[in-house]
Specification:
Layout: H1 3-27, H2 38-42, H3 46-55, H4 60-72, H5 77-95, H6 99-107, H7 114-161
Amino acid sequence: MNENDFIAEYNAIFERSIIFSTISHSMGLVSLENILDKKKYSQRDIFEYGMRLVLDGRPPEFIDKILSNIINLETEKEKIILKKIQKDVVLSMQQGIAPEQIMWIMNSYVNIELDEAAEKYKEIHEYITKEIINEFNKYQEKLADIYKHISEKIFNKYNKTI
């Protein structure tokens, strides 16, 4: 794997990791259930496989052992580094470590300026946060209408008997 391929693969891992960690940090790990790549999971991709184990409630020691065993099967130095990054992200997410701290952990593996990583993190984080707020506002209005309807129904039923 040449340096350009490594950087491209790292960037893809970085973006996916920040997306997953931001979503899970905002809405909980269960929110990742439907966005896991089942094909990658079945191929024992470190990130997808690890996240599946996390979502299944496996203990961190178990996940660490399984992912370490898979990494030990790899012979190419650059791929080993990329897989170790993914393992760290999985275990960090399981611990509830904030997405920004996960960015720092990932960046410590590579010789990429922190400013570049921070800018990409900020872009992804702001977009996800905005989307979450927009969606929650839509559902909050619906929820308020539901609560209003239920409270009126209950009041009307018991108001007649009082």
